[in-house]
Amino acid sequence: MPSYDLIVIGSGPGGYVCAIRAAQLGMKVAVVEKEKTFGGTCLNVGCIPSKAMLHASERFEEAGHAFAKMGIKVATPTLDLPGMLRFKDEAVDGNVKGVAFLFRKNKIEAHNGVGRIVAPGKVEVKPAGGQGSTLDAKAIVIATGSDVARLKGIAIDEKRIVSSTGALSLEKVPRHLLVVGAGVIGLELGSVWRRLGAEVTVVEFLDRILPGIDTEVARQLQRILEKQGISCKLASKVAAIDSSGAALKATVEPAAGGAASIIEADVALVAIGRVPYTENLGLEAIGLKLDGHGRIPVDGRFATSVPGIYAIGDVIAGPMLAHKGEDEGVAVAEIIAGKAGHVNYDVIPNVIYTSPEVASVGKTEEELKAAGVAYNVGKFPFTANGRAKANQQTEGFVKILADAKTDRVLGMHIIGSDAGNMIAEAAIAMELGAAAEDIARTCHAHPTLPEAVKEAALAVDKRAIHM
Amino acid sequence: MTEIRVPTLGESVTEATIGKWFKQPGDLVAADEPLVELETEKVTIEVPAPAAGILSEIIAKDGETVAIGALLGQIDQGAGARAAASKSAEPEKATPPPKAVSTPAPQVPKAAAAAIPLAPSVRRLSAESGIAAEAVPGTGSGGRVTKGDMLAAIERAAAAPTAIAQLAAAVQVRAPSPADDAAREERVRMTKLRQTIAKRLKDAQNAAAMLTTFNEVDMSAVMALRNHYRDLFEKKHGVKLGFMGFFVRACVKALKEIPAVNAEIDGADIIYKNYYHIGIAVGTEKGLVVPVVRDCDAKSLGDIEKEIAGYGRRARDGQLKIEEMQGGTFTITNGGIYGSLMSTPILNAPQSGILGMHKIEDRPVVVAGKIEVRPMMYLAVSYDHRIVDGREAVTFLVRVKESLEDPARLVLDL
């Protein structure tokens, strides 16, 4: 029976990073992965493929609509969808091969099959249509991630009624795409298909898109998406989808109740969220109970109630973000190795890869108000940023929230081109307890978009220069 | 960024006044180049640049009073290096991926060598408030001082009594002059320096039980020696043979015999000093300064003369260092150069004795029953009667007189 210091179940961002960190710390590590490729949801049917599609579809849109203005004359571009899907598949392929390489480099043994914890320190691995084997380990980390949340009564066939997985591989551009759920995934994938030629309608249960995001930013994005042609039907729910006919017929009701209406669509994307995935782990048998949301409860050291068994990533509480899982993977590996491991949940950036992007880190105005924290706001629009003007991509703004007394940066929210990259500056500043003035007094290269961050910091003190 | 701070200015000196900045913001300065003149009641000193670079800002301006350790200004070494190499360095960005910064000169801010670099807001607040960031407890990541920490420290300092002893606001109790005279008056505020000197003089006078005892000395023997050996002395020692060397040697001999005059009171203790550092008062434009010749008992007359001559030159050029004015055990002052015949010198606190020299005048005196014309100088010794008896003070002065009237006694230790 092969024996290890650590077995990681799941090779998504949480799992594979945990395994690599543990190997760096000298542990003998095994990873159990039920799919044929490593990388979990993120690499295979999540972050990576969606970014590839977002990128390609943005270029398609640019070629068709923005080039002429720049003096580039091209004929109306045509879409080679299979080609674009291949482009996406190459991204996935490259990344999952990269994880395989890292496993080999770090001498991490990968076992293909469904992992089940049969007893503390013992994991059974059962490959599809194959013999099971049992692995021994001093410690086990559960990193099994999450799965698509389902709508009651609506079956996902990944052909006409799809989850994000199917939405990344549609064989043709739908005439009308109905997106159920105005969260990150729904808006991103809705944007992709809108650019590729679909009519897109988003139906959202709440009265706003992007719950949890700063309200001002969310409203701005909604306006922009609607201008782009994505219709948003808020405070509405999809009660049922009739797929018997050629077109889908979705029954849409107001969330508060009332008369329903029918929306016809070719494809419906169910993007109402994700739920922790713990099937076939054998948790009940070893006495591990899940919480009310299906998550594995852990303490501050990511330890479950069973000694020697830890859990990280989407399967435990916290934002369901790949980088959160990664940081937890590193922390738990360090903790298991007897070192100090820590995740700062106050400084986890959040990015939405629509166009323009939305990125934020730290507290929203709503959160600060609710906590009774006095704060100052500095806001700066990209219309006043030289680089944005040069590129003629001036949508959006930077907003910084700083403690009214100490000027410490409490949150930053950006909507605009490249927001996802720009938010990193905010994360570093917040980790180091910087004041808005410190950002304002740090030299930012010109002409770049991050100058808007600097100006927003100046605006906290009501002394922006370029506005 | 390197800070320019007020250096320690010596025992009992807690503050200084900015005399003059030699450089302006934007000027390139070399390391050790004099930047600013600081005046204290003891001395005027120049503060050298702690590093090469561009003087980026002046925080304390001409005429302002600053405490020891206060921030005077900043030097931007990086800017200086860039200007010197005339290349533009890429600014370091906080956003990843971190770029390797290529600066032409390997200038690292001094602070980074040992500690975490200060955040820009912290540097500004430290400069504006005069509170050193190093002294503020840091609550930021890794013990960093944050802007919030500085703001809190500034608040605390504002609430606490100021460290700089505020000179009592001049109490103007004088009844106004009649209009006729008032029109012919000119009211001029005392400079901070003068106010400080005034305070110190009063403190010295109030502390000691100060008396003065007098005697006179026939300088003919010393003058004869000078005339006889003038050229040879100058040739061998490279300095003119003056009077001060004799007076210093005479005083040292007398101090050895009467230790109380070389001592100091500290609370309820008397500190007897077994070393002889004699301060020589020198008049300059800015006032009296008293550089100290150390270990006079171990120095030859030639060395003493040389040192005094050097001090005199440097005092008039404002080049004296604060260490050169510290640590004296006894002082010699000479009012004679201005024409004074007799005076009562004030003690140079915390010393317990001071010798006043005066004008040498030919006077008729009685020598062996006959009237002769002799070059006479009145001598005065002011002393702290708390630890120096009358007898001791008088004997001290008599011994000085004896050594001067018969220099052979210095050689033979009689």
Q: How many H/I helical runs of chain A?
A: 13
Question: What is the strand content of chain A?
Answer: 15-25%
Residue share in helices of chain A?
25-40%
Q: Pick out the low-confidence regions of chain A.
A: none
End-to-end distance of chain A: 68 Å
> What value does the average pLDDT of chain A take?
96
Uncertain segments of chain B are 84-114, 163-169
Structure classification of chain A: alpha/beta
Radius of gyration of chain A: 23 Å
Mean pLDDT of chain B: 83
In total, the number of strands of chain B is 19
How many helices of chain B does DSSP assign?
11
Helix fraction of chain B by DSSP (H/I, runs of at least 4): 25-40%
Global shape of chain A: globular
Succession of helices and strands of chain B: EEEEEEEEHHHHHHEHHEEEEEEHEEEEHH
Biggest beta-sheet profile of chain B = 7 strands, mixed
Question: What would you report as the Rg of chain B, rounded to the nearest angstrom?
Answer: 27 Å
Output the structural class of chain B: alpha+beta
Largest sheet of chain A: 7 strands, mixed
First-residue to last-residue Cα separation of chain B: 62 Å
